[in-house]
Write a structure and sequence with these properties.
The complex is a heterodimer.
Chain A: E1 2-5, H1 9-17, E2 21-23, H2 29-34, E3 43-46, E4 56-59, E5 62-66, H3 71-76, H4 85-93, H5 97-102, H6 105-111, H7 119-124, E6 128-133, E7 136-141, H8 142-145, E8 146-148, E9 151-152, E10 159-166, E11 172-178, E12 191-198, E13 204-212, E14 219-222, H9 231-245, H10 256-278, H11 287-290
Helix pairs in contact in A: 9-10
Chain B: H1 19-24, E1 39-45, E2 51-57, H2 59-63, E3 67-71, E4 95-96, E5 102-108, H3 111-119, E6 122-127, E7 162-170, H4 173-178, E8 182-190, E9 202-208, E10 211-216, H5 221-232, E11 239-242, H6 259-269, E12 273-276, H7 279-284, E13 293-301, E14 307-319, H8 328-337, E15 344-353, H9 367-385, H10 389-396, H11 415-426, E16 436-447, E17 454-458, E18 464-468, H12 477-489, E19 496-500, H13 517-544, E20 551-554, E21 557-560, E22 563-569, H14 570-578, E23 583-587, E24 600-603, E25 612-626, E26 631-642, H15 649-668, E27 699-703, H16 727-739, E28 745-746, H17 750-763
Parallel strand pairs in B: 1-12, 8-28, 10-11, 14-15, 18-19, 26-27
Antiparallel strand pairs in B: 1-5, 2-4, 2-6, 3-5, 7-15, 7-24, 8-13, 9-10, 9-12, 13-14, 16-25, 17-18, 17-23, 20-21, 21-22, 25-26
The chains are: A alpha+beta, B alpha+beta.
Bound molecules: flavin-adenine dinucleotide (FAD).
Chain lengths: 297, 764
């Protein structure tokens, strides 16, 4: 058993190459180990002090978010809470204030839980994940990263260093909503994200929907058939398609039938909220608290 | 000079002596204690729910390095215990009956070694049929949870899996129902749930010679001592129970738990031993889980909506062993009839063995779920006869001078005022959006009149100590004792320190249970302080050349009535006393006896059918429903309570707020689910959903302070449990309006609400 602390990216990559597993905030890894989900890895490298992975950078084609950016940074970031609002919706729902300050975006993605809250919004934004190792760097479309619950296609020596999101068109935006039974310390029973681009006449120009906790991994659908239709029609279609393509399980949180029904409701609400944002309206982060379930009033 | 505005009365100070310790982290809890050489204890649990043990081999565990003791039932006295039915042993005795049953206990040099030793214990089972269904367990052909039930010692009315039967009968219920204008019949099912205190329990035991000191997170130190003495066959005066700060209990830490296991380990290991529970153990092992109950009601009313007759049938989940749940059948029967005028009543309640975790007192045992079921049924009755739910309750609820369902006639009570105040506080009757509704429910709860004792002393410097057997579990009731002593002696609450939670120092008290601390220990403290007051009056009379009867104790001074300038500081009198007869008072006071009942008969009577100084409440709750998902949100709670005089307003407010939030959890998210073997499926805080601060709605609290006969000190009753009674019921009645039909299973989870909505849609 070994535990080292990396202060530079190179240190971290070297440790990974030598067989260590990274720990960022530890809110999945350490909490999971304590609950007997999986024992702590033999060799751990703490990456939480690598400053260069903690920044949010606006680029020519969008935004790059360092793997160590916390959910709290995301839910309060001026750019992310406006142009990439669906991601901020997701981060703002994570756990409690403490979890959001410690938990990182990289940890959320690489933990690969089908119930993670940033996955569906990032997927509908066509985000790419940058993986780096001592062998080099590659970029993977985020949806292709997850292979099974808790599994990614990253090699053991690869570190997630950043997530890159393409800039949305001026009349496009995103929203993420989840079904939750209480307003903090919750986990998504089901969730849905939508990316909506509007044509000048207010009809749908592009629509993608991503679904949380209704399949072994988060998955998206590109609803090409809705182009040119009204937001209301598209939202209804998104609901129906989401119910149809989900393969939810029954467990102590919800039955299969209830999950299938509510994922449709979430998809419809995500499309409606994303469309309102795309039309220029500001809906407070997270959508869950602004409208519908868990709303403040 | 400008006139100063009229000064508003300063908010009363919250006398909470343990507050700074807890807030700053300087307070010590049981798990914080370290003793030199202390070992770690771990238990081997059954994990299966009903089986005969065919092999139990601890030799490998005993042989492991670092293991100091491994105990099974063979290593402790062969004692069957239980407050109502002696159906239990410290360790499994040949048969296991629920997943959290303890097979063996290990003490080892550290927790990891103890875990390895537990894993090395070999147990083999021959399975027995699992009793997993409360009603099914009452069937004549049901497998028995205790084949030897008939041989157990008990004071209860029992039959096979029925561990405690109780009934309350008044008038002629069949005749009453037959003559009613209409009869409404309903069935409701409440799932079990948990106390879930923030501190998982811990026990530390250390022997010195033939005496043992046990630090434990219990709500009832004297009960814990009794359990240790009974099972380890020790006299009371060789067992000392000390409770450091307690991280909440909610009833879950009542009763006798693992103190004897840890003491037995420490005796064999010849070292101090420390047990600290994990959250999962806290969910699965203790015999203190709120009981699931199945209900059937028939209520008949006349054409004006007056109740003519009510019949109630209840099957209560006892779980595998009978902890203090023995009295639940009679208590639940009272709650199933409710605080109503009912000329013809019959309630029959069975406490049923299953292979679930044993039930036990959790905050207002049997009441929140029974109130939920009865009050949901009551709204069905009101709707059927065409009366507004508030009007129906005003018409039928008991009142001062009225006779209740068990034949008790009430002195001054405030239930009607509670109904009025709660409805007004909720804005009942005002228009609401289509997705919101206000539900109303009334509830009641006894005051428990029991023996209790305290000492008060004042030292030479004028500072005081209250040495009490009472236990503080977070309610602040013990803190309020300082206020009572101070008022009696004309001193300041801050002049007193509390010495408490040590069975070898203070006289007996029942503990933080039954909302009884202020009622009974308050009486004891007032009596003890009264003795000192008399001493002070005599001393002052000497000094001031007045009659003791004319001495007034106020503001830290003893003075002559009518001449406030003729006075002497109490501290000065204390100095005089320190050189002569010391200022020491002891008090207990006679607990008021039970009120009479007329015209009713009770089978399985345990004295619960008539209540001294009963408490009443009405909650009116505004709920918003997301009809697409079934997710309900509580928007506002208006809670009105008759708990007698409110002595500590801030503490009282806190009790109501906390209990209401607990009630919201019970209503919507907190419920234990079992697998087909009777094992808990959600024994963790992620899947067992407590409410969070983010879920808390505004809570408006109104106290109806009336002059209750036979109440506790200064007319106080109690308040720890009563506010937990009516919340879930009121939420149910709001939801029923929004759904169009009641949600008949508790908790009314989002999925259950959605299912009810779907069924309604299919019918219309
Ligand atoms: C109380 C509580 C509530 C929570 N609520 C939510 C919630 O509502 N929604 C939600 O989605 N999640 C929730 N979580 C889970 C968790 O907080 C988030 O997934 C968080 O983003 C994980 O980040 P971390 O930095 O703590 O990850 P860690 O635990 O440090 O790591 C998680 C996994 O990712 C790997 N990893 C971490 N960083 C990298 C990297 N840069 N490159 C490669 N691999 C990496 C680790 O090796 C590990 O396998 C909750 C957790 C807790 C304890």
């Amino acid at each position: 058993m070994s535990f080292t602390i990396a202060t530079t990216l190179d240190d971290a990559l070297a440790a990974l190459a030598a067989g260590a597993r990274p720990v960022a905030g530890g809110t999945d890894l350490v909490v999971g180990a304590r609950h007997g989900k999986a024992p702590l890895p033999e060799h751990l490298v703490a990456i939480d002090r690598i400053a260069e992975l903690k920044t949010v950078t606006e680029t020519a084609d969008g935004v790059s978010i360092g793997a160590l950016v916390s959910h709290h940074q995301i839910e309060t970031h001026p750019l992310l809470t406006t142009a990439y609002a669906g991601l901020a919706d997701g981060s703002a729902l994570v756990g409690s204030p403490a979890t959001r300050h410690i938990g990182t975006l990289g940890g959320n993605i690489m933990n690969a839980s089908p119930a993670m809250d940033t996955g569906a919004p990032l997927a509908v934004m066509l985000a790419e994940v940058e993986l780096r190792s001592v062998r080099g760097t590659r970029r993977v479309p985020i949806e292709a990263l997850w292979s099974a619950p808790g599994r990614t296609g990253a090699e053991p020596d690869e570190l997630c260093v950043a997530v890159h999101i393409p800039a949305p068109d001026p009349r496009a935006n995103t929203a993420y909503v989840r079904l939750e039974y209480r307003r903090a310390m919750e986990i998504a029973v089901v969730g849905a994200a939508a990316f909506v681009a509007l044509a000048d006449d207010g009809t749908i120009a592009a629509l993608r929907v991503g679904l949380t906790a209704v399949a072994p991994t988060i998955f998206t659908g590109n609803l090409l058939g809705q182009v040119g239709r009204s937001v209301a029609d598209a939202a209804a279609a998104a609901a129906a398609l989401s119910m149809e393509h989900s393969t939810p399980i029954s467990d102590v949180r919800a039955s299969e039938a209830y999950r299938r029904h509510t994922v449709g409701v979430m998809a419809r609400r995500a499309v409606e909220a994303a469309a309102r944002r795309a039309a220029g309206e500001t809906i407070a982060i997270p959508v869950n608290r602004a409208i519908g379930i868990g709303a403040a009033s | 000079m400008t006139a100063t505005p009229t000064a508003t009365k300063p908010a009363p100070r919250f006398v909470r002596a343990d507050g700074p310790d807890k807030v700053t982290g300087s307070g010590r809890y049981t798990a914080d204690l370290t003793l030199t050489g202390a070992l770690a204890a771990k238990f081997k649990y059954a994990d299966v729910t009903h089986a005969r043990i065919t092999k139990l081999d601890v030799s490998a565990a005993r042989a492991m390095p670092g293991v100091f003791a491994v105990l099974t039932q063979a290593d402790v006295p062969s004692v069957k215990f239980g407050p109502f039915v002696q159906d239990r042993t410290l360790f499994a005795d040949g048969t296991v009956r629920f997943e959290g049953e303890i097979i063996a206990a290990v003490a080892a040099v550290d927790a990891a070694t103890a875990d390895r030793a537990v894993a090395a214990i070999v147990v083999e089972y021959s399975p027995l049929p699992v009793v997993n269904d409360i009603e099914g367990a009452l069937a004549a052909d049901s497998p028995l949870v205790h084949a030897e039930w008939a041989d157990y010692g008990s004071i209860l009315v029992r039959d096979r899996n029925d561990a405690s039967f109780a009934s309350i009968a008044k008038g002629d219920v069949e005749q009453g129902l037959a003559s009613s204008h209409l009869v409404v019949t309903s069935r409701y099912v409440a799932d079990g749930c948990h106390a879930a205190p923030i501190e998982p329990r811990a026990v530390v035991a250390q022997w010195e010679g033939n005496k043992v000191t046990i630090w434990t997170s219990t709500q009832v130190p004297f009960d814990a001592r009794a359990g240790v003495c009974e099972t380890l066959e020790l006299p009371n005066n060789r067992v000392r129970i000390i409770v450091p700060h307690l991280g909440g209990g909610f009833g879950g830490k009542c009763g006798f738990h693992y103190e004897a296991h840890v003491a037995a380990l420490a005796r064999v290991a010849k070292r101090p031993v420390r047990l600290v529970f994990s959250r999962r153990e806290e969910f699965v092992a203790p015999d203190r889980r709120r009981e699931g109950i199945v209900y059937e009601f028939h209520t008949g009313v006349d054409a004006d909506g007056r109740i003519v007759a009510r019949k109630a049938w209840l099957a209560i989940d006892n779980g595998a062993y009978t902890a203090d749940a023995g009295f639940f059948s009679q208590l639940a029967a009272m709650h199933a009839l409710g605080p109503y005028r009912i000329p013809n009543a019959l309630a029959e309640a069975h406490l049923v063995y299953t292979n679930h975790q044993p039930s036990g007192s959790v905050r207002a045992p049997t009441a929140p779920q029974t109130c939920w079921a009865l009050e949901s049924h009551t709204d069905e009755v009101a709707r059927a006869i065409g009366l507004d739910p508030v009007a129906f309750r005003t018409l039928n609820a008991v009142d001062t001078g009225a006779e209740g369902p068990s034949g008790q006639t009430y002195g001054e009570i405030g239930v009607q005022q509670c109904i009025e105040a709660a409805a007004a506080g909720a804005g009942y009757g005002n228009p609401l959006p289509d997705d919101e509704a206000i539900g109303v429910a009334i509830g009641w709860w006894p005051s428990f009149s029991v023996p209790s004792g305290a000492y008060v002393k004042i030292d030479g410097d004028g500072s005081g100590q209250i040495i009490t057997g009472a236990q503080e579990c977070g309610t602040g009731a013990v803190m309020t004792l300082r206020q009572l002593a101070a008022d009696e002696l004309g001193m300041d609450p801050e002049d007193f320190e509390l010495v408490y939670q040590d069975t070898s120092v203070a006289p007996y008290d029942m503990g933080a249970t039954g909302s009884q601390t202020l009622f009974n220990n308050g009486r004891a403290v007032v009596a003890a302080a009264g003795q000192i007051a008399e001493q002070l009056r005599n001393l002052a009379a000497d000094r001031l050349e007045a009659s003791p009867a004319d001495i007034v104790l106020a503001d830290g001074t003893a003075s002559v009535a009518g001449s406030p300038d003729r006075g002497v500081p109490i501290a000065e009198l204390a100095g005089i006393a320190a050189g002569g007869e010391l200022l020491i008072g002891h008090g207990s006071g006679m607990p008021p006896g039970p009120p009479p009942t007329v015209g009713s008969t009770c089978v399985g009577d345990l004295g619960m059918s008539a209540w001294v100084a009963p408490q009443f409440s009405c909650h009116a709750v505004r709920v918003k429903l997301d009809r697409d998902t079934g997710v309900a949100r509580v928007m506002h709670v208006s809670a009105a309570h008759d708990s007698g005089t409110i002595i500590n307003p801030i503490g009282a407010q806190g009790q109501v707020e906390g209990a209401v939030l607990m009630g919201i959890g019970q209503a919507l998210t907190e419920g234990t689910t079992y697998d087909d073997q009777g094992r808990q499926r959600n024994a963790a805080l992620l899947e067992y959903k407590l409410q969070t601060a983010a879920d808390a709605p505004p809570i408006a609290v109104h106290f109806v302070e009336i002059n209750t006969p036979d109440a506790g000190p200064r007319g106080a009753k109690g308040l720890a449990e009563a506010p937990n009674v009516a919340t879930a019921a009121a939420i149910s009645n709001a939801l029923a309006q929004l759904v169009g039909a009641p949600v008949r299973q508790l908790p009314m989870t989002a999925e259950r609400v959605w299912t009810a909505l779907t069924e309604q849609a299919a019918q219309s």
